[in-house]
Amino acid sequence: MNKNWINNKTVVVTGASGGMGKGIALKLITEHNCTVIGIARSEEKMKKVVEELGENASSFSYKLFDVSSEQNWLDFANELKENGTKIDVLINNAGILPKFDRFQNYTVEEIKKAMDINFYSAVYSMHALLPMLLESDSPAIINVDSSAALMSLAGTSVYSASKSALKALTESIREELRGKCYVGIICPGFTKTDIFRNQSESDDKAQKALNMVSTSCERMVKMIMSDIKTKRPLGVHGFDAAFMNYFGRITPVQGGRLFSAVMKASKLPLFDPVFKDK
Q1: Sequence ranges of the domains in the chain
Q2: Structure confidence by residue, pLDDT tens digits, 41-96
Q3: Cβ atoms of residues 177 and 131 within 8 Å
Q4: Which of 62, 97, 216, 233, CA to CA, is 20 to 30 A from 147?
């Protein structure tokens, strides 16, 4: 496998303003001489990415829009065509983690928001950009999914559903495009990013516990880049993800029960909405 295939490509990265998306964008530019078009909503954060790139800033441009809107993706695709911009790679990384809670406690609006950002944003981006990608000599789609797609846990019904849908869709597309386009799925475990912003920020004990089982963002990005360079069809990263992958395949019912028991036994306030009756 030619690990240099990603060099000099034009790559669209969603969620590029922070966390893993930002890390991936920086490595693509500084280590592989790529041109990156970052997609996010915060111009302030995007400007910081530009500053961090320094002399490499000319290789990065950004568009500010809500990835959960189909029209935004159609407009973006039309803009690329009008500008004569050719793209080679699409990396869907944008995502949100709803607070841990029981299914019945989520509002329909919260459920829809999670599905829109975690699943439909990738549906819209792939549907709008695939014809352009297939014009490339080495097209690729990489969907950054989650360990939640490998096994569902109590309190993660909405998040797991959105990520499982993305995994299933990507697996089908991977076979449909076999030999025409590299399609990869990456399932990271807990990673130290701001995806936990929807959880209780004041819960220091919970945050420390999450940090203990989380992989650093820098290390996760390094592993994801290794997947991309080797065109790996499925990447599972983080020891928690490895366990979920194993139990999810071998004994999904008992595995889910075991992990739920561990969460409950931790007595972390983070999981109170899931296990404590009001």
Answers
A1: 10-275
A2: 999 999 999 999 999 999 999 999 999 999 999 999 999 999 999 999 999 999 99
A3: no
A4: 62
